[in-house]
Amino acid sequence: MFTPSQEDVRRFFCDVHAKARAGQPLDALQTLASQWLLEHPEYDPHMADAEAAVARVYDGSDGQTNPFLHLAMHLSISEQCSIDQPRGIRQAVELLAARRGSLHDAHHEAMECLGQMLWESQRAGRPPDGQAYIECVQRRATVGPGDKS
Fold it and tell me: For 35, how many CA atoms within 13 A lie in the half-sphere containing its CB?
């Protein structure tokens, strides 16, 4: 399994950003990443300078989201849905997207579930609980946007 470093991830997104803006060919993963970049134009300034991106610390103290983590989570959820792993995630995200009327919004809610699952896994020293993750997304698909559980 490929485990990119923080620097690898940041350089990947900066490279995709530059290639897409220049109209250069993109492979499948780069194309998917460029689509999520288009959904987040507020991140363009972070993508413009790879060296600055690699050096920057995103610790939340300035109230800003880490754009690279955010985009990587979009990619992760897209990949999970494409292979339906953990099993049931594709249907759960599709139901959530239909309920919210937006795949983008559904991804943001699924990110909260994914983050919660990973945090609980790390805290307890156990493997991630894919079933709990799917159940969290499913719950969100069955309640209104203000009633998230």
Answer: 10
3-state helix, strand, coil in the chain (%, to 5): 70, 0, 30
Report pLDDT for 145.
Answer: 60
The predicted-structure confidence for 47-85, as pLDDT tens digits, reads as follows 999 999 999 999 888 888 899 999 999 999 999 999 999
Cβ atoms of residues 10 and 53 within 8 Å = yes
3 state SS for 11-62: HHHHHHHHHHHHCCCCCHHHHHHHHHHHHCHHHHHHHCCHHHHHHCCCCCCC
The structure's pTM equals 0.89
